[in-house]
Amino acid sequence: MSETALPKDEESVSKTSTPTPEPKRRERSGNRTSGLAVVALLLGIAGVGVAGWGVWQLRMLQAGHIQQRSEVQDIAEQTLALTRNDQQLTARLAQFPPADQLEDSRRLVAQLQGDQQRLSQRLEGVLGASRKDWRLAEAEHLLRLASLRLSALQDINSARALVQGADEILREQDDPGSFGAREQLAKSLAALHSIEQPDRTGLFLQLAALREQAAQLNALAPEYEDKGGSLFGLTPTQPTNPADSEEHYWAKWWEQISHYIRIDFNAEKDIRPVLAGQSLAQVRLALTLALEQAQWAALNGEPQIYAAAIKEARSVLTANFNKDNPQSKVIAERLDALVDQPVSVMTPDLAQSLSAVQAYLERRHGASQPTETQRGTSP
Predict the structure, then answer these.
(1) Backbone angles phi, psi at 155, to 5 degrees
(2) What 3-state DSSP class applies to 302?
(3) What predicted TM-score, i.e. pTM, was given to this entire model?
(4) Cβ(308)–Cβ(323) under 8 Å?
(5) pLDDT tens digits for 40-60?
(6) Homologous superfamily (CATH) for 121-196+347-377
């Protein structure tokens, strides 16, 4: 400020002293003052920048110092935690047994695992042999059951399924020693396949249907039922004049006698007496009993009893009922068709198959006994 003011004072002094100043000196003094101002301005800006940079550096140093302090604190905490963990691990390691004791324990565990594995293999072998023995015993039981079904009930289908099951069990064994037993089973199966199972249930149901029809059969000829009307409408109920009284008398007489006389236009055929109500019930009962006996024989496979019962029912039907009646005619035709139906078959003998399977089981048990003895004596 003083430098800028001095030229003005000099200029005023010069103006008062000299009326005509030199122009070159004025220009030089103005340029010098402006340059000084610029330099001063730059120096001020530079000073402000240096001061700001210094302040920023100071703040950065403070921030770094705070961060370093926090990092040092974290490192100290981690070091303390590691120290604690180290102490805990040291305490746990102190509780463990020594290395030689651990080696002995490991060796004992390995020996125990080996013994356990050998015991499990031996147990599996024993159980496997027992399971095979059970299956073979089941095959023998199936053959016994098939033989019983054939001898008692002549059930071909069930016996065939049972023998097939026994053959499947022998096939599962995969033993060459079972060839003979399987050969006998194959022969039995071929014999069973060649026999047809009689339809006993169907025969029983057909005979039951015939029993229902037999209970509805009527006598040889129907009885005349008087409904209270005059016969043929010959005369009215009351005569209209005395001349008709004679005709009315004959009509009344004919109405009374018609209860005792039956006119048959097929006189050339044999005429049997009409059955009474009680006799008809007895005949129906006899026919029903004969059919029931035939049903029992069909279920139990008795061909002689079955044929005799069918013939008995046929004779009762023929002797007491009209052959030309459609209902009795149908029953007679069904009886003639059922009398030839088979109710019994010749069943094959399964004794050889059963003996072959039993012989195979005995050979198998005889071969397994020395092996079990060796296992029992081995250490």
Answers:
(1) -90, 95
(2) coil
(3) 0.47
(4) no
(5) 888 888 888 888 888 888 888
(6) IL-4 antagonist (De novo design) like domain (1.20.120.660)
